Each structure stands twice: as C-alpha cells, then as structure tokens.
C-alpha cells in the first residue's frame, strides 16, 4: 500500500490531545525493515485485546489470529480474468464495505459526541475489514475502516454525559482497565509491555541504526542490545521493585534503563560513553514518556548521562545506593573489567551486579587463603542461562551472572582463615 500520507489510531486515554501514533502509509522495500502498517495493526489489536472487556471487544469484530501484512498473497483465480477484473473486484468490495461503514464514519465527521455503543455485534467485522483492505492494498477502504474503528474508540473514551447534571460522570473505559491492573494485582500485561517497547524502539531508534554501527571492532565500545524478553526475565530474577535503584553501566540507547523503570516503576540511571547511542537514548526517553501517557501508564524516574563509567561523578554517588547494577560486559576488554571491580566495593549489602561475563576470576571456585583477599570474594555468584534470541549479537543462547554482595558470609570465611593462620603461627613459635 504505497499511499503517501498519514493516518492514526486514536489514543485510548484522556490527558493528551494526541493519538497513539501517526503512520506513513508506505510499505517497506525490505521485509526486515520497519513496517508502519504492521505496527499500526499490532497496536490496534493490543489496545482492543488488553484494554477492553469481551463485550466491548465485540463491537470491533474478532481479532485475527495472524497478520495479513505478513501472510502470503491469496492463490490466483483458477480461470483467467479480464485485465481490469482486479480493479473492478476491489472497487465492488470497497463499495459494499463503504456502504456498511458509512453510518459510523458520518458520526466521526459530524463532530458530535456519539452515544455509548450498545453491546451488540457490529454489522461489519471491522478488524477483518481492515485486514482485508491491507491485503488487497485498497487505500480508500483502509482509511474508511480505520475511521470507523476510531469512532468506536472515541465512543468508549468519551461516553455521553448523563442528562441529569447531578449524576456521576461516566468513566473512561480504558482508564478503568488500567486501574483494575493495580487493584487486582495482575500488573501490566506483557502484551502491552512489549508492544509499547517495540513501538517506541522502531520509531525512535530504528531510523538511527546506521549511526549506531560506527564503533571500533573488537573493543569495549562495540554496540549490542539485550532483547526485551531477556530484560523481563532478568528483572524478575533480581527482584526489582518500585523503590529500587537500577544502574546500567554502558546503557547504549537506553533500552534496559527504560524497560526497568517502565516495568517496575523503579528509579533508573544509565551512563554511555559513545555519543551516537547516548544521543539516541535521550530521544528515546522523551518519546517513551509521551507514549506512556498515551497509553495511560507511568514511567519511573530515568536519568541518562553521556560519559565514562569509570570517571563519572554520578556513578560514584549512586553506586552505594544501588540495588541492581547491570554491566553488559560480554566484549569488554579485561582492563575495563579489572578497573570496574574496585568500584563494586562501594555497593551495599545484598546489592546485585548482573553481567554477561563473570567478575569473579574463577567461577564457583572454592575460597582459599590464596584468593580470600581478592575484592571479588565479597560476591556470591549464580550463573543463569538465557535462550536463543535474547541478545542482538548472536542467535544462540548463553550465560549471564548474578553477583550478590555478601560481606557477612565473606567476613565469616575470612575470620576462619585468620584464626587458622594465628593457630599455625602460635604452634610454630612453640
């Protein structure tokens, strides 16, 4: 559908006179590139599935199990068709759909506030109609169907005010759902979490991918990303909460910092040395704030800095307060890993350092008198495994490491060695 122009899906929530997005109706030349129509389609399905009750969902029709944007083209007709048959078929289909949709689109264009819709199934399965318009590349049908869908969304967002001015104002159906996630303890649905993250990334980071590849190969500045599913698992493993402080040393474009604060409400800080990803991170943060408000959700406090993690004054200030520190050190030079280790002495008891390579020289090795004085001995290390597709630099799985500060346990072991040394010295003197 190579139609120039913009179209939007209405925001489900009050608070901003914005939409969840404006999309250029162009198909990408490369199937792996950002597809705005597919993005719009996924966003719409997520809104309807996660924010609405089954009764409200029925107004839009059934949510397709697959995306026709990604589906193969239908098989050709078994008999030859006249040269203009496709156009006439498309036109006829559009005319029939347009007639079915005209009453709702007239509501949308009238400017009047429509009544709250009744819980009856619509005459048109709007979601299937939208999918069909995409599949047959019918621009007018696509725009008209989406206008009808937006009218339904506005009906739920702005229910008609009661005739009696003393009656309570009807609630925004979408905000009721957001409130219920907190009240019922279910939390943010994963589909909403990953949709917002993907939507924001594609539109904030995607256009700058070329600039992110300007790094020195085989150096500590190599750019790589942890995928949202992996970050979600890591957040659960370390127990990040709303009152936690999360630090990302080498935060790149800010993906993990943003997801941590979005998913848990925690306070997050990220520092990135390279100018290109640090600049993109700031842009992504601003867009993420806007997108959270569009979806009626909150983002925890996020602070980003462009600078050197080893010399940053802010890192020095925050490390003693941090609950979780992430270091994506998979390709860090050993000199950088060694320089970071003394900084971890400032961490508080129970703090966790998450890394892609261990900071302990010999993982799971027994502590002896030889290594008891190593600063990494304060860590109790656990190795975890991530699945294929969890990182951007390779298709296979791997390991990551949770280093929990355990000074109390370390002190007991050190005391045992010191007592043993004292005993041997006493016997040798006799």
TrEMBL record:
Record-annotated DOT1 domain positions: 75-418
The UniProt record lists the keyword Ribonucleoprotein: no
EC number, as in UniProt: 2.1.1.360
Biased segments, Low complexity type: 84-115
Keywords: Chromatin regulator, Methyltransferase, Nucleus, S-adenosyl-L-methionine, Transferase
Protein's cellular compartments: Nucleus
Classification via InterPro entries: DOT1_dom, H3-K79_meTrfase, SAM-dependent_MTases_sf
SUPFAM superfamilies membership: S-adenosyl-L-methionine-dependent methyltransferases
Pfam family, one: DOT1
Region span, Disordered: 63-121
Transferase in keyword set: yes
Pro residues: bias regions: 72-83
Activity regulation, per record: Ubiquitination of histone H2B to form H2BK123ub1 is required for efficient DOT1 methyltransferase activity on histone H3.
Principal location class: nucleus
Reactions it catalyzes: L-lysyl(79)-[histone H3] + 3 S-adenosyl-L-methionine = N(6),N(6),N(6)-trimethyl-L-lysyl(79)-[histone H3] + 3 S-adenosyl-L-homocysteine + 3 H(+)
Note: In contrast to other lysine histone methyltransferases, it does not contain a SET domain, suggesting the existence of another mechanism for methylation of lysine residues of histones.
Function: Histone methyltransferase that specifically trimethylates histone H3 to form H3K79me3. This methylation is required for telomere silencing and for the pachytene checkpoint during the meiotic cell cycle by allowing the recruitment of RAD9 to double strand breaks. Nucleosomes are preferred as substrate compared to free histone.
Family affiliation: Belongs to the class I-like SAM-binding methyltransferase superfamily. DOT1 family.
Protein name listed in UniProt: Histone-lysine N-methyltransferase, H3 lysine-79 specific
Protein species of origin: Hohenbuehelia grisea
Taxonomic classification: Eukaryota, Fungi, Dikarya, Basidiomycota, Agaricomycotina
